[in-house]
């Protein structure tokens, strides 16, 4: 198996090292793992692509490349430059530092890479490590992802879980904020919503008197509805959410037709 890996935390991120080990485990001794990751951190860029300017790419070592662009740029670079003659069988994105559950999904560059992978017709899985008081001070805060990542990916390689729809499915995986030994298992979930969490801007004045705005997130341990991603994570489960890039609200289409008559 040939696997392309990327992330949004940057080429030197510790989560990418964890993902490399996961990918090597899944690919097996005869497989290949190729890395194309952002040269600098790209958290929060979503599915952004560098449409109006070129992206510089540099080889850092065997099968290891850094691109001055977004995670989606890295997927495009991997498919159309680095691996243009030998396309990957699978794209893995992560392991993100922090959760990409609930509303975080919409901002995530980790997810953006998988959206692009799915649009390009390649099986894609996003992986993120929820942080919390039970794991943030561990020697390896990614312990849960490191221990259970390969098994999770293998579970998702089941042929029945993929399709040939125009907007192909991809999977959003979040590992719970607990030590590896406390993980209870895997759970199929929907995307949750934290009722009291919003991104916001906070003003700060620089020593030169100029005003700057810092974007900050809200509380990450707010409960979400039962059966959703963050709820499963906070209960100790690995959440696995099937997703598509099609944003149509199909349930509202007929109502809209009637309203427009």
Structure description:
The chain has 261 residues and is of the alpha/beta class. The protein has a single domain, classed as Survival protein SurE-like phosphatase/nucleotidase (Stationary-phase Survival Protein Sure Homolog, Chain: A), CATH 3.40.1210.10. It is built from six helices and eleven strands. It has helices at residues 14-27, 71-82, 109-119, 143-156, 229-234, 250-260; strands at residues 2-6, 32-38, 57-61, 64-67, 90-97, 124-129, 170-175, 185-188, 200-205, 211-216, 237-243. Helix 1 packs parallel to helix 4 and helix 2 (71-82) runs parallel beside helix 3 (109-119). It starts with a strand and ends with a helix. The model has no long low-confidence stretch (mean pLDDT 97). Its cofactor is a divalent metal cation.
**Distinct helical segment count:** 6
Strand content: 15-25%
Helix content: 25-40%
Kindly name the structural category. alpha/beta
Q: Span from first to last CA? A: 53 Å
Radius of gyration: 19 Å
CATH-defined fold name: Stationary-phase Survival Protein Sure Homolog, Chain: A
CATH architecture: 3-Layer(aba) Sandwich
Number of strands: 11
Strand order within the widest beta sheet: 3-4-2-1-5-6-7-11-8
What is the count of structural domains? Answer: 1
Which term fits the overall shape?
globular
The helix/strand order is EHEEEHEHEHEEEEHEH
Major sheet summary line: 9 strands, mixed
Name of the top-level CATH class:
Alpha Beta
Poorly predicted spans: none
CATH homologous superfamily grouping: Survival protein SurE-like phosphatase/nucleotidase
Q: What would the average pLDDT be, to the nearest integer?
A: 97
């Amino acid at each position: 198996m040939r696997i392309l890996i990327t992330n949004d935390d940057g080429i030197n991120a510790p989560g990418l090292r964890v993902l490399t080990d996961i990918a090597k485990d899944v690919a097996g001794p005869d497989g290949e793992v190729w890395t194309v990751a952002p040269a600098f951190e790209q958290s929060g860029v979503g599915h952004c692509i560098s449409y109006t300017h070129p992206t510089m790419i540099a080889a850092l070592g065997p099968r290891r490349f850094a691109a001055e662009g977004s995670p989606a740029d890295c997927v495009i670079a991997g498919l159309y430059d680095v691996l243009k003659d030998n396309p990957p069988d699978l794209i893995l994105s992560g392991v993100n530092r922090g959760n990409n559950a609930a509303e975080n999904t919409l901002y995530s560059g980790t997810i953006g890479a998988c959206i692009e992978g799915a649009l390009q017709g390649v099986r894609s899985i996003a992986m993120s490590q929820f942080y919390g008081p039970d794991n943030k001070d561990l020697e390896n805060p990614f312990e849960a992802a490191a221990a259970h990542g390969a098994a999770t990916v293998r579970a998702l390689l089941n042929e029945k879980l993929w399709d040939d729809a125009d907007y192909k499915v991809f999977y959003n995986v979040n590992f719970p904020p607990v030590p590896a030994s406390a993980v209870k298992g895997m759970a199929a979930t929907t995307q949750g919503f934290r009722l009291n969490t919003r991104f916001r801007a906070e003003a700060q004045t620089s020593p030169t008197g100029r005003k700057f705005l810092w974007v900050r997130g809200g509380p990450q341990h707010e409960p979400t509805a039962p059966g959703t991603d963050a709820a499963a994570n906070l209960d100790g489960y690995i959440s696995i959410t099937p997703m598509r890039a099609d944003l149509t609200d199909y349930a509202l289409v007929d109502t809209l037709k009637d309203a427009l008559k």
